[in-house]
Amino acid sequence: MINHSLKELGHMLASKQISSVEMTQTFLDRIAKYNPSINAYIALDHDKTITQAKAADIRIANGSAEPLTGIPLAQKDIFCAKGWQTTCGSKMLANFIAPYDAHVLSQFDHAGAVNLGKTNMDEFAMGSSNETSYFGGVKNPWDFDRVPGGSSGGSAAAVAARLCAAATGTDTGGSIRQPASLCGFTGLKPTYGLVSRYGMIAFASSLDQAGPMAKSAEDCALMLNVMAGFDERDSTSLNRAKEDYTRGLVNMQGAQPLKGLRIGLPKEYFADGLDANVAKVVQAAIAEYRKLGAETVDISLPNSQLSIPVYYVLAPAEASSNLSRYDGVRYGHRAAAYDDLMDMYMKSRAEGFGAEVKRRILIGTYVLSAGYYDAYYLKAQQIRRLIADDFTQAFKQCDIIMGPTAPSTAFKAGEKADDPVAMYLQDVYTIATNLAGLPGISIPAGFSNGLPVGLQLMGNYFDEARMLDVAHAYQQVTDWHTRMPESLK
Amino acid sequence: MALNISDIKRIAHLARLEISEQEATQTLTKLTGILGLIEQMQAVDTTGITPMSHSQDVVQRLRDDVVTKTNMREAFQANAPKVGNGAAEKAVYGGLYLVSQVIE
Amino acid sequence: MEWAKNNWEVVIGLETHTQLKTNTKIFSGASTQYGAEPNTQACEVSIALPGVLPVLNKQAVECAIKFGLAINAAIPSRSVFSRKNYFYPDLPKGYQISQFELPVVGKGNVTIQVPAGKNTAAYEKTIHITRAHLEEDAGKSSHGVVEGMSGIDLNRAGTPLLEIVTEPDMRSAAEAVAYAKKLHELVQWIDICDGNMQEGSFRCDVNVSVRPKGTEKLGTRREIKNLNSFKFMQQAIEYETRWQIETLEDGGTIQQATVLFNPDTGETRAMRSKEEANDYRYFPDPDLLPLEVTAADTTRVQAAMPELPEAMKSRFVVEYGLSSYDAATLTTSRGMADYFVATVNAGAEAKPAANWVMGDIASYMNKNTELLSSPPISPAQLANLLKRITDGTISGKIAKEVLNEMLLKVGASTASVRETVTGEGAFYNDFGDNFADNIIEAKGLKQVSDSGAIEAIIDEVLAVNQVMVEEYKAGKEKAFNALVGQAMKASKGKANPAQVNEILKKKLTE
């Protein structure tokens, strides 16, 4: 059952083969067995979870079930969940019980989904390995010596280890896609503004976007159907008609179902810095797409190498301001001993934040400070436009862009922990879409030395449905997305 | 734009982060590395390019001036931190959040 | 005072924080009602819980546009909200959402009337407005609620403010106060602010610097924060000016600083908490999109704008034949102007109505400041009284008596229930439109115009004042007025004065 798709699980519930309580208990049992070693979850609440499952069973019984009613999901601990410990992976919020639900969580609640627990993450979503979490690192289910990627590392491990049916993540510079690549599943970062950010703890507001993390494109489509939609509480939420993202997911019949699709291959994504074995896997996946009828076009995203410098100005700048509310006054960590108000601020924040978060606050404070704003912040915003314009040009030549998601497979825990610059380069292929606000998906494309490799698909604004169709077509003819670690079966 | 220790201390103070001498030194090394990465931007000529704050070219939506919020003080103050300095009770009194005396 | 005579010039600019008249906060649906229990109007956005986001209040934007139109300002089609970053316990996010580079209201101007001083005549002056921008108010700290602790109330946090910034155009405390008063009236006139200074709805920061007369370069300024009374503003500027001049004359220098005024000592002192140089790290708020104000928006707001004081003043001159001075006085507040118009509309003649509104009514209001802008008797009641002067029922002098009686009867007991004078159906008192008539009737104050009765009174006066009669006949004109006075006194003021004159003259020449 743990390998079933969301659709199959839904059928099982609808046909009363299994109740939501039983299904949920199956996952809770796996969590009890494996989570102590994997550390995918920060907060579990058996009673709350089972109460939701019982409510779902009533809905199923009275015929008011929706596609995800009764399905047990994992929620990244960046989303406020009423009555749940909501920590964002930080000591600062270790004792914070959210008094309200994030928009994404209330959407799942309305859909009748069951919340299995809150998943581990890099502190305030700042990291690419989950090693910055106050609650400890997360093991990559394919190799416990390695990291699951980040920042949505807990959700990633939970999906890969089948400790949930699917999960949510957030992606500011690659935090859904890079762990999807490193853990071997499908992760989608939607167009900025498609999913409300209300109740999602802010890292870099102009880049943060929530999305689904699941086994397949089809599962992601079902999740996105629930997550996407206008929310008047988020000024950046876009008021668009609701879409059914599963509408194009038909069984691909015929020899060349993707005939007419133009795939752009940016030369910058296949240059130095890409692991040779990863490159091979990605090329093989692209070859598979050609077999499905797609044609490939060589394109260029000339400013893409600037996306990391630009990101490491803009994201820390926004974060330095977003994290100022954690001052020990109204909630969160307050130092146990201090001299006066200033000392209380200085100590509470120094104790409550970890090293990486402090580094980013300092960079952000520096680039915004008097005399540096133009050279750093303004310049970065200008180059951000150049990066976005590159995509506009590229989409005149192609319908979808493909390349690697991450430059390598999962690396060993501790390998890059003390070298921020090396760590930042993990997101070299994912950041540009965050800066442009475009959607991106990582899908499993094979293995290199037993570790998963992801293929990244980047689409034009609001092109999620087509991207999911294209991902689905590949998953109809390959089985990489169905693989799970032998040791956890 | 090379960073020095006094820059680190100045920005740490602006950001209200206590930092020891040793931490400041380590931070200097790491931030210098990160700024080295950032410096690549300076090679680009951005004359005349409009800065991009948002990915979508949309304007602010306005909210009707109608009261929608109710009193949630009790629920919110359940999360109040402890006073500290030996006082174990929550840092609220008569509905107010408590901090060390503010000096104007 | 020596400093006033010597060669220094004071340069003053104002930044005024006006709380906008909205039901809810600028970025959330929490109430802005004054006086609630601490933190009961502090919603998740007001206290900056993790994950919350701002959405802009439409009414706050409309208020800003209204103000822009009222000061002849440019309203840019786009403005941007920025974050002003600093730590303070009453600032829950650690940043204030404000407008920095692109404010909602651009350059405009306000004409002020500076009243005559001891050695100066009254004059008009144009004050240039640099900009006005929308921002959120902070919460409030109260000190010593618990020994050594401050208590933070975030009910006020997020209340919409329009910060109105002038050029450094003012050259005296009198000009600064005249500007502040004018602005105070204007924001109430266009109904964007309740003007309640005690509750902090209208607060001024005053930038003061001095320079040798005749020089161009501005001196270093000190900013006096949060003045919430015109009297304190006057005192604070005078003290600060004197202090700066004395410091410079003693060979000292002025350091840029933020200072507070202490009303008890009449002195200013630098704030300790603002000692460190501020570096606010402004940047565009990524949670908010650019604010667009279209031509259609301004047209719509313009259409709903009340007639502005300047326009109304000109109209009063033309329509009612008032002097320019009277018209200007009546239009210093919308409450007074509306009250005057309503009195005329209720049947009073314009000139007497103007005189009574500016005179007795205004001075009663000045003495009873708790009444705010709402006089205790209605325009219809005042018109009723004035009509009785015109039709000869009572004399002007008796009318004053009647008015006093009316005010006495209404008393202060009902003052608290009256809320506004401007709205339709405003409540004044329970005495009806014929209030004045009823008093005249009850007290028998009707003017005596019966010539027989007046003759009888005069005969009596002449009989007991033979000395005066003799004096008059001997050519002492003054004696005549004394006799008129005696006759009026004998009639208890009710005799028609014109008739008394006429009959007395006739009798004395007989």
Characterise the protein shown here.
The complex is a heterotrimer of chains A (489), B (104) and C (510). Chain A has helices spanning 6-14, 20-38, 46-61, 103-111, 153-160, 177-183, 217-227, 276-291, 307-322, 341-352, 355-368, 373-394, 420-424, 431-436, 464-477, and strands at residues 41-44, 72-76, 114-119, 166-171, 186-189, 209-214, 262-266, 295-299, 400-404, 440-448, 451-458. With 489 residues, chain A is α/β, with parallel strands linked by helices. Chain A has a domain at 6-259 and 463-488: Amidase signature (AS) domain (Amidase signature (AS) enzymes, Alpha-Beta Complex). Chain A has an eleven-stranded mixed sheet, sandwiched between helices. In chain A, helix 2 (20-38) runs antiparallel to helix 3 (46-61) and helix 9 (307-322) crosses helix 12. Among the domains of chain B are: 5-43, Orthogonal Bundle (Histone, subunit A), CATH 1.10.20; 72-104, no CATH class. Chain B has helices spanning 5-14, 21-38, 73-77, and strands at residues 62-63, 82-84, 87-90, 92-93, 96-100. In chain B, strand 4 (92-93) and strand 5 (96-100) form a beta hairpin. Chain C has three domains: 2-296, no CATH class; 306-442, no CATH class; 451-508, Arc Repressor Mutant, subunit A (Orthogonal Bundle). In chain C, strands 6-7-10-1-11-12-13-14 form an eight-stranded mixed sheet. A three-stranded antiparallel sheet of chain C has the order 5-4-15, with no helix packed on it. A two-stranded antiparallel sheet of chain C has the order 3-16. In chain C, a hairpin with a 4-residue loop joins strand 13 (257-262) and strand 14 (267-270). Chain C is 38% helix and 19% strand. Chain C is an alpha+beta fold. The interface between A and B is large, with 75 and 59 residues. Strand 5 of chain B pairs antiparallel with strand 9 (149-153) of chain C, so a sheet runs across the interface.
Regions with little confidence, pLDDT below 50 for 5+ residues of chain C? 415-424
Largest interface: A-B, 75 and 59 residues
Write the CATH fold name of the domain at 6-259 and 463-488 in chain A: Amidase signature (AS) enzymes
What is the count of distinct domains of chain C? 3
- The shape of chain C, in one word, is elongated
Name of the CATH homologous superfamily of the domain at 6-259 and 463-488 in chain A: Amidase signature (AS) domain
Structural class of chain C: alpha+beta
- Backbone structural class of chain A: alpha/beta
